């Protein structure tokens, strides 16, 4: 499978503070940003985790906090249908952030935090968040169900995985991914404070080093006018590379600093000409010290007692 000679990724740190009047207006906003990304030469636009929280701008009056997820999940299938044709129309892929999605569980119905990767060839690939935050598991908060599958998607000669926010912080998922040789990991995130943004983006850079791959991360900015639970969001955009001499030493192809507010829709950042061919060469034989998809199965943990 030959990697593309040129591939540009667009990362949109979406500003939630702009009011939205309905799903149609939200889809129009997404399409406008896709058109801008396509005009800038991007092959794929990535939106943040819980980009769907913008829908709370037009939620029913009096909707209780513990009903927000269920209500957004009711809107989600219609929202997805509004987006389905956009990749073919604009000729670029779309990771449409994440949205609550109704799922069946052993205990009955539930809701996942689901990302949708929509491609120009008509595919719509779902990826549920695997590792939930305490708030996402709280019965009186959003009470979500974690996913149990991690998808590798082949497109444009690349092997792509999506790790949603906290998922990128889990080394166990990096170990699971390593034998699959991903080329690109997409990280939609939502972090309320700078500390959370620092964790997600710090771990995203670590995954680029561990897996010898590119990692693109983007987060939400601001506060949805209708939210009752998330008064702040701090987000950034970055495309991380392995820290190798042939890739510029420092492991960052493109990045903007974290923002808590923005005067418009939120910055659109282009990570241009991601060097996938060189990344694959390094992964195969050329990295300075990388030992390959290394596991610690042969290592015995020894706890030395106190004297």
Structure overview:
The chain is α/β, with parallel strands linked by helices. The chain has helices at 23-39, 68-84, 86-90, 134-137, 171-177, 194-211, 276-286; strands at 9-12, 44-46, 93-105, 108-118, 124-128, 152-155, 158-162, 184-189, 214-219, 235-240, 252-259, 268-271. α5 links the parallel β7 and β8. The longest helix has 18 residues, at 194-211. The model has no long low-confidence stretch (mean pLDDT 94).
* Helix run count: 7
Order of helices and strands: EHEHHEEEHEEHEHEEEEH
Helicity level: 25-40%
User: What's the story with the biggest beta sheet?
Assistant: 6 strands, mixed
Q: Which stretches are low in confidence, meaning pLDDT under 50 for 5 or more residues running?
A: none
Give the overall shape, derived from the CA principal axes.
globular
Indicate the structural class. Answer: alpha/beta
Portion of residues in beta strands equals 15-25%
Number of strands: 12
Q: Biggest sheet, strands in spatial order?
A: 5-4-3-2-1-12
What's the end-to-end separation, in Å? 57 Å
Rounded radius of gyration (Å): 19 Å
The overall average pLDDT, rounded, is 94
Keywords, separated by commas or semicolons:
307 residues, alpha/beta, 26% helix, globular
Give a brief description:
The chain has 307 residues and is of the alpha/beta class.
Topology:
Layout: E1 9-12, H1 23-39, E2 44-46, H2 68-84, H3 86-90, E3 93-105, E4 108-118, E5 124-128, H4 134-137, E6 152-155, E7 158-162, H5 171-177, E8 184-189, H6 194-211, E9 214-219, E10 235-240, E11 252-259, E12 268-271, H7 276-286
Parallel strand pairs: 1-2, 2-3, 7-8, 8-9
Antiparallel strand pairs: 1-12, 3-4, 4-5, 6-7, 9-10, 10-11
């Amino acid at each position: 499978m030959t990697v593309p000679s040129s591939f540009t990724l667009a990362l949109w740190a979406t500003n939630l503070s702009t009011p939205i009047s309905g799903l149609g207006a939200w889809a129009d906003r997404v399409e406008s940003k896709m058109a801008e990304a396509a005009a800038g030469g991007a092959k794929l636009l990535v939106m943040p985790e819980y980009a769907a929280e913008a829908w709370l701008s037009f939620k029913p009056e009096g909707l209780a906090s513990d009903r927000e997820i269920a209500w957004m999940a009711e809107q989600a299938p219609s929202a997805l249908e509004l987006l389905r044709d956009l990749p073919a129309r604009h000729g670029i892929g779309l990771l449409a952030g994440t949205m609550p999605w109704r799922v069946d569980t052993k205990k009955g119905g539930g809701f996942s935090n689901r990302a949708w990767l929509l491609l120009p060839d008509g595919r719509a690939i779902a990826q549920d968040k695997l590792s939930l935050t305490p708030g996402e598991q709280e019965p009186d908060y959003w009470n979500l169900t974690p996913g149990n599958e991690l998808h590798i998607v082949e497109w444009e000669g690349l092997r792509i995985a999506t790790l949603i926010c906290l998922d990128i912080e889990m080394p166990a998922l990096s170990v699971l991914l390593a034998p699959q040789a991903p080329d690109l990991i997409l990280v939609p995130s939502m972090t309320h404070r700078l500390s959370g943004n620092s964790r997600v983006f710090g771990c995203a850079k670590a995954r680029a080093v561990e897996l010898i791959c590119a990692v693109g991360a983007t987060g939400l900015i601001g506060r949805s006018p209708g939210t009752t639970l998330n008064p702040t969001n701090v987000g950034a955009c970055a495309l991380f590379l392995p820290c190798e001499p042939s890739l510029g030493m420092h492991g960052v192809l493109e990045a903007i600093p974290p923002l808590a507010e923005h005067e418009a829709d939120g910055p659109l950042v282009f990570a241009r000409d991601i060097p996938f061919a060189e990344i694959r060469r390094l992964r195969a034989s050329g990295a300075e010290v990388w030992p390959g998809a290394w596991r610690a199965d042969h290592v015995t943990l020894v706890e030395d007692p106190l004297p």
